[in-house]
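[Primary structure, fold]
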Amino acid sequence: MNRQYLTDAELPFCKGCGHSLISENTDKALQKLGLNPLDIVVVTDIGCHGIIDKCLITHTLHGLHGRSVALASGVSAGLNNPEKKVIVFIGDGGATIGMQHIIDAAHNNFNMTVVIHNNMLYGMTGGQPSEFTPMGFKTPTLPGGATQKGYDICEIVTAAGANYACRVLGMGDISDKLAEAFSRKGFSLIEVMEICPSYGIKSNPGMKLAQTIEGAELPIKVYMDRDRDTFCPDLIENSKSLIDPGEAIPLQFSSKLKALVRLMICGSAGEGVQMAAEFFAQAALSSGLKATKKGSYPVTVGIGFSSSDIIISNDEILYTGSPKPDILIITSQDGLDYAGNAIRNMDQGLIYLDVSLKVPETKAKVIVHDFRGKVSAKYAALYSFFLYLKQSSVFPVGALVSIFNKSKLAEKMDVSKFLE
């Protein structure tokens, strides 16, 4: 059966990982139901399973750890259309963290299907046990094995009010079982028991998945199949807009910008890159320009790179991001590592580079400056924007000063430090 909901790309999981089986069988199940890919929203959680996003041709949404069910509940309530299919992919780690969201979604009977990828441990972060780890099951951080039973999520959501709940072994063709769960109206949950080849097998040599599940007293069966009324939101007519008109950015300055400018800033997480880009975009708006901003950072937030693409123009901008920036600002080694493709794509333009970094091979002009030494790493990104404006005059530095002074940051940092 050819794929219709997954791209032809190789799936991004370890060899032997049950996540691949779930992804392939999800495609088969959806084909059996004949759903239009554009009628499907797949909400994924943080965890190894979540890197499937790039392989899906449905709508996708990636949540924070444990929050995918909460996001999907909002999507389901907002759509208020049982003909649209909302599917959640979440691991046992995410389900542990977001347990209350799962219970609430089952209790309210939202139109959605939760597929739990239960490999009985936290696979992305090193193999720690989750609240789903069966008694006796070993992990790298629990070499003696779990000393108590894990949760039975199927029992929990059945008690909470789910319309459908079942558990299956992640072996062979499970597409019929997935299709059964997907076809139900209201809240359905299917728990797929699988094994992590990187941590589960190595920590439990010789284990057999079926025997492990049987020993954990987790029945492979349908727990609930009923037709309880699904959630239907109350529609409020003529409600006040949630957008506060007082938040509009007033026009206070003018700009000398003649042509569209694509600007990219790359630094490290936790060093204010996104905040600095937001200030810059707002300052552009206060100068009469149009602006778009697109932030990028790893799934595991708080570490690694942080990057933002900004476009400013006198005319309407209908997109975000650009693979070939006109201006590239790099404030850290993380940023330099991430900016590799952008640097290679630039056949002209300007690169602002922190003095601590090695100058890359490029056709663009490079300006080296001590961003981090001047105002510390925490404010290097913001300082770089002040420097760029002083040298380019695309709009007044005063516009950025004004936005900065309206922020809470002004209480901690004297803006004159950025103007020296």
